[in-house]
Design goal:
The protein is of the alpha+beta class. It is 25% helix and 19% strand. The chain has 3 helices and 6 strands. The chain has a 4-stranded mixed sheet with strand order 5-4-3-6, sandwiched between helices. Strands 1-2 form a two-stranded antiparallel sheet. The longest helix is centred in the C-terminal third of the chain and has 18 residues. The protein is elongated.
């Protein structure tokens, strides 16, 4: 038994314990069993893939950079499954300078008119509105993340001929 005196008034006695000793008197190194292949954790391989950029998110980011003015508006086009809608937007004053779609009766004069032909007429009406409003260029062409289909290409042809879209 070992006796340690901390001060003259109190004596602390420490006795060795047999918990950490094997039967032979040598101390045990750890309480855990040695690792086996079964007890090792399964490791997954970390694969980082590039995230595809969502067209709607990319379009939202673009709208923050390009704002339309009264003399240089933003051209916004949306294509649904069957129709096309186009707007000239003045973002600073929050006004729509021109709105046209393929459902308007002034654009769809014939009942046999296809949607692509009506989309081309919307583009021609947009050019006429730009001439009336003294608009010589647009700040950005906003397709709302949509791919160029037949209606969108038919709409872009008169606008590109006028010089708004680079081709």
């Amino acid at each position: 038994m070992a006796t340690i005196s901390a001060s003259a008034t109190s004596n602390i006695q420490i006795q060795p314990c047999d918990i950490f000793r094997c039967g032979s008197g040598t101390p045990i190194k750890s309480f855990l069993p040695p690792p086996t292949p079964r007890t090792l954790p399964m490791m997954k391989r970390l694969v980082i893939e590039a995230k595809a950029d969502n067209p709607k998110i990319r379009n939202r980011r673009m709208r923050k950079k390009f704002n339309g003015t009264a003399t240089k508006p933003r051209l916004s086009v949306f294509c649904s499954d069957k129709q096309l809608y186009a707007m000239l937007v003045d973002d600073q004053n929050k006004k729509c300078l021109f709105y046209g779609n393929t459902l308007q009766k002034s654009i769809r004069t014939d009942s046999s008119c296809t949607t692509a032909e009506a989309a081309e007429r919307v583009g021609e009406e947009l050019i006429r509105a730009c001439i009336e409003l003294n608009i010589s260029e647009i700040s950005s062409y906003d397709r709302n993340g949509l791919a160029r289909g037949d209606r969108l290409q038919a709409f872009e042809n008169p606008i590109a001929r006028h010089g708004f879209l680079p081709r």
